[in-house]
Amino acid sequence: MGTDTKVRVANRSDIEGIVELQKHIYYEYNRDAPFFAWQCFENVNPSILIVAQQGTSIVGTFGIQKIKTTDNLYGGQISWIIIAKDKRRRGLFAKMGDLALEGMPGLDFIFIFANKEAIFPCEKVLGMKFIGKLSQLISKNTFSGIHPESCLEPVTVKTKFNEFPCYKNETTFLRTERYRQWRYAHSTAHKYFKVSIPSGEYAIIKLFNEKRSSPTIGDIVDFECDLLDIPRLQHLFHAASFELRNMGATSITTWAVPGSKLRCVLEEMGFAQSDYYSSLGVRVFHQKDSHLYDFNTWHLVQSDASNY
Asked: Is it the case that residue 276 has pLDDT exceeding 80?
């Protein structure tokens, strides 16, 4: 790392430089200034963003979001990691990570949904263990022409998000109504829709390539349903898939942890594992929480990652 590189807490005036940096690394996501303002400075979860600045340029970012689990633990989601290609392997990752962790006290564990490039530095620098792969499950089935009974509405600031807690022996995140309002109604990246079934359970869906070249991908990014109620899970995911087809999706994707009942339900519906995946990395700070290293205890949805 050059002696003229300064590592510090970010502020809104850094957004333009952050956007310029990510254009060269993750150009396919097309993340603009409103996205970084929403994610990093208007987040309903406590968050911190660290930047590395060289001269007038931002050459690195490293963030943490503090998220509560349904079993009252606090996880720090490692987020917004971007390092200029010519600045890698110079200690920036470690220096930014140390400052971010110092600025985010009270964590029981840290975690990340990592791409292949992020695994090694997270293992070496942060001491994380990568416990499993979250493959993108994809379906190209047309399903039945019969419309499963459901209601479709665009997500707005008036949308209600009731909770149906049933996560016994499962580790998942507390997706409160306040969080979902921020995550979906205020998103600058995507337009989301809520699909509800008569019993009250619902899924959150979106189209991914609706403004780009085909094919158009439909994502089922979040849902509320008893994970042990197979008939309702089937109804809900059939309804979400039907609505996405009607919206123009040629394929539909979602997440489910391998070996879970949800994964079995989705596979029976025709969802299959694709080549694309994220790896879940975890590091616990207390021995009593070592169960978090067991991938089978987790329930995760696509929108736990910011790019969905």
From this structure: yes
